[in-house]
Amino acid sequence: MKMKQAQFDLxxxxxxRLAAGSGFYADKLAGIDVSAIQSQEDFEKLPFxxxxxxxxxxPLGLQAVPDEDIVRIHSSSGTTGTPVIIxxxxxxxxxxxxxxxxxxxxxxxxxLDRIHVTPGYGLWxxxxxxxxGAERLGAMVIPMGPGNTDKQLRMMxxxxxxxxxxxxxxxxxxxxxxxxxxxxxxIHLRKGVIGSERWGEKMRRRIADELGVQLYDIYGLTEIxxxxxxxxxEHECGIHMWDDYIYFEVVNPKTGAVVPDGEIGELVITTLRxxxxxxxxxRTHDLTRILPGxxxxxxxxxxxxxxxxxxxxxxxxxxxxxxxxxxxxxxxxIPGASSExxxxxxxxxxxxxxxxxxxxxPGANLYALEMEIGDAFKQKIGITAxxxxxxxxxxPRSEKKSxxxxxxxx
Length: 410
Ligand code: ZN
Description:
This protein is of the alpha/beta class.
């Protein structure tokens, strides 16, 4: 994709400012002549920024403006090692809300909607981002945060929530609970805004059917504002990205070379306007591709495909690369198999063993299903797997992103 002149100008001004300052990017850009960067090709030679770099800058090494300009911080979850702290200026908070409002509008959400926010509040960027965008839009926010299903459903019924904001796994949990309690006719939801976790078509269909809503994918990550830097439209063909705030590239995860439009690789993002903690060529680890051409909705914002997985979810078994999205796709076509599964990779007696646990519909013929899924796995993924059908609801649901592939070999 060609970099626009306005994007180049913003990037160039940002690089000049960062190189002349002190701190994280002054160090990273040391030895690079920023004035010699004259084109997209020159830009593509700049070094990447990795999550590990951000961890090393803990706590406030990323801060690129004086203390008096910082109004807030957020932090990515520190479940694996040191957390990453992102400082925001007042303008950053404002820009994020502007983008988020745009997301809601893209989904046809209006000031008359009642937006039920289940992502968490606090250090994590999610809840407050959904809230600020909704208030800017003028809709009524119901700031639930996660957990307490009884209270969630009570508020949803009594306040007549029309929009559910959730991760896909939490939306599924709520949908199942609504079905179990038989209160579907008291639910007024019409749209779901689902966080950018990779999720399969089958899971999407189940949530949409059980809740009776149209679903939209919202994209984002804590390191770059949070959720809200891109949104799918009613045509459900990828995610429109707000390219007046971010510049994005898709690169080969191994070599780092920019791949042609349409080819799958890792999404790399450069912020165009961020003040508190600008990022240059940040490796997101999200696998996707640039979708060429215009969208039927007529939006001028370019699209990426829905997230196909994480570079760290990609596992190599018996010489074959497996992405979770391939398994989603395979299960989609098998009646009796649910959207919920887990893959375990083990190393036993000198051999890699791949085991697929799949939830099944009640009353399914488990033996026949095991055979059918086994054949499909061999045919579509390319290796043999041990198939273990389990009952609906047996695999864990989570309020955050769910892990589906467990590599126990190392
Ligand atoms: Zn569109």
